[in-house]
Amino acid sequence: MSDYIDIIRKPETQNWFKAAMGMNITRDCLLDIVKEITHELYNTIRKEINRKHGVPEIDVCSQCYTPNVLTCDTDNKCCHYKNGRCAFHDIYKPRNCSANLCNEICKEIVCRHRFRNRSKPKSFQGPTWVNTDASKWCAEPWQIAKCYLSKDGYKDVNKEEEADFNGIVNIMYNCEFFQMYFKDDLTQKENVCIKVLLLQKV
Ligand SMILES: [Zn+2]
Ligand SMILES: [Zn+2]
């Protein structure tokens, strides 16, 4: 036990602790900002769908699940086939939203993803659909933000409050809507988000 007390008293340990505290405080601040911008993102998407297809911004849909809005294609990283059947599309089949909304929200999410281009390396191919629940897109903008997380493992992170620092930075970087809130040009190889994400990996 006394060994641990010595470790805790060491200046290096205390510096490490301060750094961790600093990161938590930064995360809390960023989270507030991301929450607000995510609402803005949803409003912008709805305005765009209204402009393109005349769907009123007050219309909502909670009837389309994620498999309903995605075509059956392993590129979406959700589809996997067993005995010739897709397990992901087993219950909910691809279809057009009766409110003409969910498929359009899906397209708008894709076109704002920094790595939507299929020529990019495999690990960077557009939204991570496995994290989201499309039936909640109109009610919880966070479900849209989750499409911009970089990897799966966030499926059960249903509330903004549960997202970690890495996840929050990934949302800000992967979703191009956030660019207008940055001074840094996020299209450059070296940018503030990349620096933070690399630091996390060390
Ligand atoms: Zn499928
Ligand atoms: Zn729908």
Key attributes of the depicted protein:
two-stranded antiparallel ribbon, 202 residues, DUF4559, mainly alpha, binds zinc ion
Which compounds are bound in this model? zinc ion
Contiguous runs where pLDDT drops below 50 for at least 5 residues: none
Radius of gyration: 20 Å
What is the general shape?
Answer: globular
Domain module count = 1
Number of helices: 7
Strand order within the widest beta sheet: 1-2
The beta-strand count equals 2
β-sheet strand percentage: under 5%
Structural class: mainly alpha
Mean pLDDT: 90
Helix percentage range: 40-55%
Largest sheet: 2 strands, antiparallel
Terminal-residue CA separation: 29 Å
Q: H/E series, N to C?
A: HHHEEHHHH
Pfam families: DUF4559 (PF15112)
InterPro entries: DUF4559
Give a verbal description of the structure.
It is a single chain. This protein has one domain (2-201). The chain is mainly α and 202 residues long. It has helices at 2-9, 11-53, 66-69, 102-111, 142-145, 165-174, 192-201; strands spanning 81-82, 85-86. Helix 2 (11-53) packs across helix 4 (102-111), helix 2 runs parallel beside helix 6 (165-174) and helix 6 (165-174) packs antiparallel against helix 7 (192-201). Strands 1-2 form a two-stranded antiparallel ribbon. The protein has seven helices and two strands, in the order H-H-H-E-E-H-H-H-H. Strand 1 and strand 2 (85-86) form a beta hairpin. The model has no long low-confidence stretch (mean pLDDT 90). Bound molecules: zinc ion (ZN) (2 copies).
